[in-house]
């Protein structure tokens, strides 16, 4: 480019070509960014669903321990009852 106060028609045409090339590359980059955003949105949704599932499993685990104790107590009572009554003769 010429370093004077006015740009020549060739300089303007060169700048126009460079700007067109830049816009083309920018459009391609924007399209790639949008595709990446769509792909990662599915992954983020999957991870959020997994967090909910693990929360449910934690809740079930908190319930399972007392239920296990109750089942053991019922089994012990049934075993004692059958031993006393002689059901397994």
Give a structural overview.
The protein is mainly α. Helices cover 87% and strands 0% of the residues. 0% of the residues are buried.
- The count of β-strands is 0
Order of helices and strands: H
**Structural class estimated from helices and strands:** mainly alpha
Shape: rod-shaped
Oligomer category: single chain
Low-confidence stretches: none
Q: Mind describing the biggest β-sheet?
A: none
Distance between the termini: 109 Å
Which bin fits the share of residues in helices?
Answer: over 70%
Instruction: Quote the beta fraction.
Output: under 5%
Annotate the secondary structure layout.
Elements: H1 9-85
What would the keywords be for this entry?
mainly alpha; 0% strand; 89 residues
Please give a quick description of this structure.
The chain is an all-alpha fold and 89 residues long.
């Amino acid at each position: 480019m010429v370093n004077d106060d006015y740009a020549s028609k060739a300089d303007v045409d060169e700048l126009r070509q460079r700007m067109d090339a830049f816009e083309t590359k920018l459009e391609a980059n924007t399209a790639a960014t949008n595709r990446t955003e769509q792909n990662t949105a599915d992954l983020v949704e999957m991870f959020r669903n997994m967090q909910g599932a693990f929360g449910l499993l934690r809740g079930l685990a908190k319930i399972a321990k007392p239920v296990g104790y109750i089942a053991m107590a019922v089994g012990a009572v049934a075993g004692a009852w059958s031993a006393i009554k002689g059901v397994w003769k």
